[in-house]
Write a structure and sequence with these properties.
The protein starts with 20 loop residues before the first strand and ends with a strand. The protein has one domain: Lipocalin. The protein contains no helices and 13 strands. A hairpin with a 6-residue loop joins strand 11 and strand 12. The strands form three sheets. A six-stranded antiparallel beta sheet has the order 4-3-13-12-11-8, with no helix packed on it. Helix content is 0%, strand content 49%. It is mainly beta.
Length: 168
């Protein structure tokens, strides 16, 4: 897990909305470059070499004593649901703080690129909390990167970034 390194090429990570942000996974060379959108909150990720997917609304960021759950769910109205859910934290009741965490089978995705990942998949993903707001309505910033095995046994890379309001 220590072979994942996030490199940030920006002076101000989220305060300057016009600066480009690049996250690179040293493990597999996967890279995600975005200009953070002029939006209050967003969740963006890319699987393999697909186009990045970015959500600007319906983002939930729930902090538990020892866990964080970031999710997005949209009912497409045709029986399809777009979903992203990332869960990670510490064992026991230790409080969360800034730093890197392993995501152990805490990833669920169903998106319009056809990615279908559920909690039964094997993953090797590392998430880094770079900001934890102290109060409800403050920002939580997380970047993540790694690999997962989908429901048909194929390995994929994922890399992403979350800038969301703390909901609790």
């Amino acid at each position: 897990m220590k072979n994942l390194v996030y490199i940030f090429f920006t002076v101000c990570l989220f305060a300057c909305q016009s600066e480009e942000l690049t996250i690179i996974s040293e493990e597999n060379g996967s890279e995600l470059s975005i200009v953070p959108p002029n939006s209050d909150e967003y969740l963006t990720y890319r699987v393999d070499d697909q186009m990045p997917i970015t959500y600007f609304e319906h983002i939930s960021c729930m902090l538990q004593p020892s866990q964080i759950v970031i999710s997005h769910i949209t009912d497409m109205g045709n029986g399809e649901i777009q979903e992203f859910r990332l869960e990670f934290g510490k064992a026991g009741d230790l409080p969360l703080d800034l730093g890197k965490y392993n995501v152990i089978n805490g990833l669920r995705i169903s998106d319009d690129h056809g990615n279908k990942i559920d909690y039964e998949t094997t993953s090797n993903i590392e998430a880094e909390i770079t900001t934890i707001g102290e109060r409800v309505g403050d920002y939580v910033d997380v970047n993540f990167s790694g690999t997962f095995i989908d429901e048909v046994g194929a390995e994929h890379t994922i890399i992403g970034l979350v800038h969301a309001y703390r909901d609790n």
